[in-house]
Every structure is written in structure tokens, then in C-alpha cells.
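Support request from a user on the community tier.

User writes: "When I paste my C-alpha cells into the form, the page sometimes reloads and wipes my input. The last time it worked, I copied everything first. Here is what I submitted, just in case something in the input itself triggers the reload:"
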């Protein structure tokens, strides 16, 4: 395979049509991986909570408590209302995105070989390197933000804010207020989703380039091994940081639903 064919092969989704035609289609590998990771991650959390004790916690319970306390502290610093929904939402986002990002550490050729009997090209194993995943997550948060905005301020209150903030309620300013708010509402899911997608997609490309270098010669293999190790160590920070940023933006957007101009 040429380098272009190699990269194209590993960046091809297992697209499956729903019904007739190609308009409604699903990236089967993205969906399957996301669902499996969700079951594993939250199954682990559920088992830990179910087996929790009031005494000295075991390693599993201590780890879960550490994650929950960490996320809850972040929510406390931003969201000043009742945290009964926001903290579980933030925990869900953080753990799920972290697990999906972490799939980038698996060697793509091994994954492709292991899933070739399911998919022609093998699975693309990093769901967050698929813009459909990050947009779906960001739009879900955006819809929740709209829901809580209307719930808190009422439909008429939200409409009033759209046209009368931030420049004032003079009728001559309504169109400018609306356009300003429209840009803000559109930019939130765009920035929320594309930041995560761009970082994970770039990481996937770099790993593919490193593996191609390893196929050139023995020296290339040695050099690529060192580069791959260094990038993998650095990528640990990116994986965790992007999950943290996505979680924090989720908290911020939900918090903004309760704020008034």
C-alpha cells in the first residue's frame, strides 16, 4: 500500500445505510465502540457504587470516589444551584469522553486486523475522531442548555432576553440583540464539538504517520518506536485534557442557562 492508501484505509468508517438510499447512514464502528465503552465505563461505576461500604474503601471504591469528588468540586466552582443533575451529567461526559479518547492508544493495525471480519476496512476505534460523535455530544449539551434556560426563565422570558439583551430593550436594538445572541448560540456547539474532534483527529493522523515510518526500514522502526513512545506519553495529557475541557464547557453552558444578562 502507498502511504496515501494506508492512511485512507485506516480513516475509512464502516458506513451502513439505514433503509433505502445513502442519506440515512450510520458509522457502525463509531456507534459500536461508543456503546461498548459506555457499558464498560458505567458498568464499572455501577458495580463500584453497588459494592460501596461505609468503612475503609477498597481500591475500586476509592478510585470512583476520587473521580466523583474531583468532578463535583469543578461543578461547585461554576454552578451555584442544586447539583443533583449537573454533577452526574458532568461525570457521564468526563468518563465517556475519556474512554473514547483513550482508544487512540491502541495500535490501528492490530485493531484493524482484529475487526476485519466485522468491517471491510476494520474499525476506526476512536469515536471522538469522528465529527458525528463530537457534534452529537455537543448538541445534546446545547439542547439541555436550552431546556434549562426555558425552564428557569420561561419561554417568554427567554424570547425577551433574545431580543432585549445585551444592548437594551429599545426596539431599534432588537435586531442587533437577536443577531448577537444567534451568533452566540450557534458558536457554542461548533466550538464545543470541533475542539475535541480536531485534537483527536490530529492525534490519530500523527500515530498513523509514525507507524508508516516504522515500515520503511529497521532504522525507521527503531526511530518510530521512540517517536511513538514519546507521542503516546504526551498524548496521555491531550486525552485527559480534552475530556476535562469538554466536561468544563458542559458545566459552563448549563450554568449559563440560569444566568441573566
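"...and here is what came back when it finally went through:"
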Amino acid at each position: 500500500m502507498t502511504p496515501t492508501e494506508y492512511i485512507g484505509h485506516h480513516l475509512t468508517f464502516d458506513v451502513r445505510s439505514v433503509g433505502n438510499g445513502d442519506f440515512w447512514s450510520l458509522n457502525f464502528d463509531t456507534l459500536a465502540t461508543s456503546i461498548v465503552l459506555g457499558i464498560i465505563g458505567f458498568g464499572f461505576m455501577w458495580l463500584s457504587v453497588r459494592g460501596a461500604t461505609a468503612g475503609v474503601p477498597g481500591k475500586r471504591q476509592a478510585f470512583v470516589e476520587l473521580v466523583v469528588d474531583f468532578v463535583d468540586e469543578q461543578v461547585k466552582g461554576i454552578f451555584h444551584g442544586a447539583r443533583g443533575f449537573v454533577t452526574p451529567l458532568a461525570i457521564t461526559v468526563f468518563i465517556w469522553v475519556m474512554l473514547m479518547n483513550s482508544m487512540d492508544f491502541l495500535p490501528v493495525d492490530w485493531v484493524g486486523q482484529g475487526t476485519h471480519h466485522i468491517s471491510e476496512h476494520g474499525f476506526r476505534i476512536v469515536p471522538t475522531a469522528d465529527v458525528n460523535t463530537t457534534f452529537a455530544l455537543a448538541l445534546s449539551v446545547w439542547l439541555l442548555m436550552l431546556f434549562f434556560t426555558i425552564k428557569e426563565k420561561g419561554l417568554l422570558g427567554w424570547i425577551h432576553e433574545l431580543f432585549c439583551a445585551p444592548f437594551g430593550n429599545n426596539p431599534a436594538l432588537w435586531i442587533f440583540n437577536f443577531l448577537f445572541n444567534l451568533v452566540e448560540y450557534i458558536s457554542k456547539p461548533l466550538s464545543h464539538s470541533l475542539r475535541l474532534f480536531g485534537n483527536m483527529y490530529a492525534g490519530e493522523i500523527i500515530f498513523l504517520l509514525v507507524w508508516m515510518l516504522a515500515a520503511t526500514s529497521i532504522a525507521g522502526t527503531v526511530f518510530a518506536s521512540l517517536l511513538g513512545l514519546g507521542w503516546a506519553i504526551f498524548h496521555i495529557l491531550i486525552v485527559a485534557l480534552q475530556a476535562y475541557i469538554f466536561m468544563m464547557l458542559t458545566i459552563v453552558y448549563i450554568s449559563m442557562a440560569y444566568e441573566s444578562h
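Agent notes: The reload is a front-end session timeout and is unrelated to the input. Strands lie at 15-17, 25-27. The chain has one domain: 27-256. Escalated to web team.
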